[in-house]
């Protein structure tokens, strides 16, 4: 059974960098595709970024200039960095596995989510 | 605004059938997947590849696609189906993933 667990600070100051890690158990980050998705309080889901085992990355156009995603195979983790945060970046951040079967892409495993608040 | 459009809220009587729709031009080219989210919980995949159910998802959940509209149908809605439902696919460029705005389902 694949399990994902987000970790990182729950409070970030405006203009600073949000850094989160997702630890994967029951599977290897060297396989499959991995993503970050966020959800502002009371609002809908927003896809942020994905990384593929080939090294290819895809970014939400609205966040591309501020986002970095990386993998650490030694820790079986992948990480998100979001620079120059504002209050609008306050959200629950989920990591998820993006499975692919033929032309189907879908998020089959999700972390429990971590609330990150941007405030001074 | 999302490139995938969902009705904000839908209601259904207990035991009846409800259809939740997701509209977008990209759905003519790309498959949709559907996610159920209950308050305070992470989303759960209920349909992928337009009409495939992961193991553990009741068979009252089904999906379909026609033109630019993907649909999630719950046949015989149960109280535990009350949740927010999100569709996901790709945007019109095909280069980015995108979620619909979500539909809040109330079971009366």
Structure description:
The complex is a heterodimer of chains A (120) and B (108). Chain A is mostly beta strands and 120 residues long. Chain A contains no helices and 11 strands. Chain A has strands at residues 3-7, 11-12, 18-25, 33-39, 46-52, 57-59, 67-72, 77-82, 91-101, 104-110, 114-118. In chain A, the strands form 2 sheets. In chain A, strands 2, 4, 5, 6, 9, 10 and 11 form a 7-stranded mixed beta sheet that branches. In chain A, strands 1-3-8-7 form a 4-stranded antiparallel beta sheet, with no helix packed on it. In chain B, strands 2, 4, 5, 8, 9 and 10 form a 6-stranded mixed beta sheet that branches. Chain B has strands at residues 5-6, 9-12, 18-23, 33-37, 44-47, 61-66, 69-74, 83-90, 97-99, 103-107. Classes of the chains: A mainly beta (120), B mainly beta (108). At the A-B interface, strand 5, strand 9 and strand 10 of A face strand 4, strand 8 and strand 9 of B.
Structural class of chain B: mainly beta
Query: Rough shape of chain A?
Result: globular
Mean pLDDT of chain B: 95
Helicity level of chain A:
under 10%
**Number of separate strands of chain B:** 10
* Helicity level of chain B: under 10%
Percent of residues in beta strands of chain B: over 45%
